[in-house]
Amino acid sequence: MFLEQRSTGYLIEVINLENLYKPSVPQVTGRSHAGEEKQDLAIYQKQDLRFPSGEDLPQCWINPNYRVQQDNVVMAVSQR
Questions:
Q1: How many structural domains comprise the chain?
Q2: Which of 22, 24, 31, 73 is the 20 to 30 A CA-CA neighbour of 64?
């Protein structure tokens, strides 16, 4: 899967998709696709990645507490 690095605008090929989907893992291993030569593998922070369309990654991929925050919002709305 290719994602865009926010800080550089380069496309990053994510090598281990399983870590991308785990919210408890803050980084992924990938390869930058900048330049003509194949780049070495590097570690990228998921907070610095987004989809090439400009959309942010889903909270369930980057925030291990996304359900707690979501439940609090639902409870606050339902108590009104």
A1: 1
A2: 31
